[in-house]
Amino acid sequence: MYVTKKEIEVRYAETDQMGVVYHANYLIWMEVGRTALIQELGFSYADMEKDGILSPVVDVNIRYVKPLRYGETAVVHTWIEDYNGFKTVYGYEILNSNGEIAVKGKTSHICVDRDSFKPLQFRKLYPEWHKVYEKAKKN
């Protein structure tokens, strides 16, 4: 299983009235991790969009374990949890400065045509990308 790691400095603007990272910001950090994973595997989501293909989130699951606070460094670990050639499930662990799990999550994605939003088979659109995802996914 291939795992990418992306460090993110927690900014003051990302915290809430309680002084902890606002819960929705973890979704943004997951996107940062997912984009880094795709790039490290040799592909580009921007290129996919140029082809008229989008990859919307169709399901998300987040478990908040420990708070992250302003001034800490979050480390986003991202991997391919499951992949079947049509739907991709990305897994995430976001660690705090002490290396402890702060958040666990998963997002599920499919590919759709930008204009019609008709679902498309990823493995047929991008056969090379498909092969890499098959090798990189969690066994």
UniProtKB/TrEMBL annotation:
Keywords: Hydrolase. The keyword Hydrolase applies. SUPFAM superfamilies: Thioesterase/thiol ester dehydrase-isomerase. Gene3D superfamilies: Hotdog Thioesterase. It comes from the Bacteria. PANTHER family: 4-HYDROXYBENZOYL-COA THIOESTERASE FAMILY MEMBER, NOVEL THIOESTERASE SUPERFAMILY DOMAIN AND SAPOSIN A-TYPE DOMAIN CONTAINING PROTEIN (0610012H03RIK). Belongs to the 4-hydroxybenzoyl-CoA thioesterase family. This is Thioesterase family protein. It comes from Bacillus changyiensis.
